[in-house]
Amino acid sequence: MPGSTTISRPPAIEPPVPTRILRQARAHFFAHGYSQCTMDELAVELGMSKKTLYVHFAGKEALIRAVVEDLSREIRASADELFANRRLNFAAKLRGFAEGMVERTARMNPRLLRDLQRFAPEIYRQIAEMREKNIPYVFGRFIEEGQVAGMVRTDLDPAFAVAFFLSAMNGLIQPATMDRLGLTPRDIVPRAIDLFFGGLLTPAGRKEHEKLFSR
Asked: I want to staple 43 with a disulfide (CB 3.0 to 4.6 A). Which of 23, 50, 111, 209 is the partner?
């Protein structure tokens, strides 16, 4: 039409090929487990040849190892972003982190952990190592920030509290334990955070916590 203005939008930027592979591989492994997945199926989902897939990752074990490393980096980065956000109070940051973890584990089939425990024990140990690094890094900062804000009890030793939570999570995120409780990782994470911080919070902190986590 005369006089009309067409607004052109910049074309969407495709992520680098390794990033695209990792995103699809995470969804693939989460949905189907480890033993049932093949590089052929993943190549088809990605719309690329298996040869191209192998250019970037040497095999299924190398790929799942990279997926775990990428997930670990993502968890840390999301926590860093929350801690840096001065518009959010302590309770909002804690809730944001819990929601992010639920979103990441929402589609994780418990079969994945059982498969890794049985067929790829080194990768299973890598996941445990990821918890050993990320829980002190993230929850140690939450405890310290909460104490400064007056939301977490200052009579508690942060190092002891972190070790306690890490031990609890190591025990809960086990295939046999999840089977016995009838829970999945997405069920366990928010419940563990709620139970753990419920005992650490001051009355003011508990009030803010309950206000946000009861929604």
From this structure: 50
Q: SS3 of 49, please? A: coil
CA distance 118 to 189: 23
Residue 95 is assigned to a structural domain of this protein? yes
Query: By the 8 A CB rule, do 75 and 135 touch?
Result: no
Within a domain: 108: yes
Q: How many domains are contained in the chain?
A: 1
CATH number at residue 77: 1.10.357
pLDDT confidence bin for 206, thresholds 50/70/90: confident
Mean pLDDT of 198-205: 82
The span from the CA of 96 to the CA of 206, in Å, is: 16
3-state DSSP helix/strand/coil percent for the chain, to nearest 5?
75, 0, 25
Is residue 157 classed exposed, middle or buried when 0-12, 13-18 and 19+ CB atoms within 10 A define those classes? exposed
pLDDT tier, 111 (very low <50, low <70, confident <90, very high otherwise) = confident
83 falls within a domain: yes
How crowded is the C-beta side of 22, counted as CA atoms within 13 Å? 17
8 lies in some domain:
no
**Which pLDDT score, from 0 to 100, does residue 215 have?**
58
pTM for the model stands at 0.83
Cβ atoms of 116 and 34 within 8 Å: the answer is yes
Q: Residue 168 belongs to what domain range?
A: 72-213
Residue appearing with tokens 């979103």:
103
